[in-house]
Amino acid sequence: MFSLGSLSLTDGGSAGRRVGGLRLANDVWQAVNPSTRQPVNPPTVSGNTLRIAAISDIHYGKNSAGSMVQLFSQIAETADILLICGDLTDYGLEEEARILVADLQSIKIPIVAVLGNHDLESGQEREVTEVLSNAGVRMLDGDTFEYRGVGFAGIRGFCGGFGRGALGPWGERVIKDFVNEAVQEALKLESALQKLQTPHKVVLMHYAPIRETVEGEPLEIFAFLGSSRLEDPLTRLGATTVFHGHAHRGAPEGKTSNGIPVFNVAHAVLRSSFPDRPPFHLLELDVPTRDQADAPAWSRRASDRKASS
Fold first, then answer.
1. 302 vs 59, 142, 153, 162, 292, CA distance in Å?
2. What digits encode the pLDDT tens for the residues 23-43?
3. Can you list the domains of the chain with their CATH numbers?
């Protein structure tokens, strides 16, 4: 067993792996229907368990209609809430977002998402966000969302590199502006985590906060896959787990310097790493009973509070 403060990690065989009240449910899926890729006799869960599905980099384009309806249906049957960690669209077009929304209609569980770099490609990120929000997707950008006593904090994040290889704000103005983008995203995450008072804090972002989950990508592009500046709020303020995408050839899991689990849920990573499972990540959290948990609630960003004061 590995322990760090109040967190513990136990390799538990058929019981799965737990981090505090968290269980990696995919570990207990022993059989999968080869035609539907759906687990056979998945483990039953109590009303005190929240099943969280996470995926990223689905890259919906103009010709993607219907391409993931089966996967979305599998998720809806297996999970209580879905997280999408960016690159929902391929070129960041409003038209692509509408195609995705049509396919998401089969999901009746809450959906929480953040934008990725592809979603900003065409300068239509506001339109993309509006289409998704109007369809009921909770879009986070330094915001929080609470569901059944679990808090979710979401940002896009940014790149810049990791550790000693991180780019510093030195020299030309364009370099300083580049670094400042990652700093501002880290500040958004810090603000969101500070607002959450729930026992569990689940973080979703697009870019990687640690180097470990981008391992497998060419070393030359590591600096463009994430930033260790995004790890700082996590280690200082704490989180139950972190989901990200972006690194299509990265590793499926790692941990922060203080042991917080980090999962790369890029669609391509899940398909290649776990070919015998449906390509989404499933985690289970022990949560308060339904009558103890608060109803879903939004919180506002610090900038919003300043604007209204």
1. 31, 9, 14, 27, 28
2. 555 433 333 343 433 443 444
3. 47-289 (3.60.21.10)
